[in-house]
């Protein structure tokens, strides 16, 4: 169920800028509680189902919160299994978004393995466009972005303004390190994608993800050798 917008775009931008300053040093749970109080049902959490840390934090702060998952049609079975397990054990409502075309329909129109020939277009069709559509029901969305993941994420604010979508973007664990994530997972017994125990440090679509090599940053196994390190959702 969605409700009418509470704020104008200018008000949303002002809220994002103010909260980004005031909540910079706040604990992740407090950031999520602020989002829930401010946006009510027009706030959601997105999850790639690499791990369920942000979904778990959000379920504690906002029981029943919407957790939005993009099913590109190219996920590892382990990722779909993690999504199903999150839905089964956490107090959240998983919302699965799908692209306009199935993989077979996309292959018919663009040719097979578009991900190898034009990954930017493939991501635009299978990730960016369905997310844009799905987020229309919300004024604010949370991500699991962390500053230590890669140089492109080093300046991620805990609350910022998503200019492209004109929404408030909340990254409650932006300041966390991998050690913080690991400690939270251990302390709370949080679900993780089994691939994280199999050499993968970042999990995306199967054709575009490999295990990370010694000394590489966490996202180096994504689109390796293709001159790309973000799908476009967070650009
Ligand atoms: S990550 Fe790869 S398979 Fe997935 S949408 Fe992007 S290009 Fe396509």
Task: Describe this structure as you would to a colleague.
With 235 residues, this protein is an alpha/beta fold. The protein has one domain: HUPs (Rossmann fold). The chain is 37% helix and 11% strand. The chain has 8 helices and 6 strands, in the order ααβαβαβαααβββα. It has helices at 9-22, 28-39, 53-61, 77-89, 103-110, 114-117, 119-134, 178-188; strands at residues 43-46, 65-70, 92-97, 140-142, 159-162, 167-170. A 6-stranded mixed β-sheet has the order 3-2-1-4-6-5, sandwiched between helices. Helix 3 links the parallel strand 1 (43-46) and strand 2 (65-70). The longest helix is centred in the middle third of the chain and has 16 residues, at 119-134. The chain is globular. It starts with 8 loop residues before the first helix and ends in a 47-residue tail after the last helix. Iron/sulfur cluster binds next to helix 7.
> Strand order within the widest sheet?
3-2-1-4-6-5
- Heteromolecules bound: iron/sulfur cluster
CATH arch. level architecture: 3-Layer(aba) Sandwich
Calculate the mean pLDDT score and round it.
93
Low-confidence stretches: none
Tell how many strands the DSSP assignment holds: 6
Question: What global shape is seen?
Answer: globular
Secondary-structure-based class equals alpha/beta
Percent of residues in β-strands: 5-15%
Our count of domains comes out at 1
CATH homologous superfamily descriptor: HUPs
The CATH top-level class label: Alpha Beta
* Cα-to-Cα separation, first versus last residue: 29 Å
- Kindly identify the CATH topology: Rossmann fold
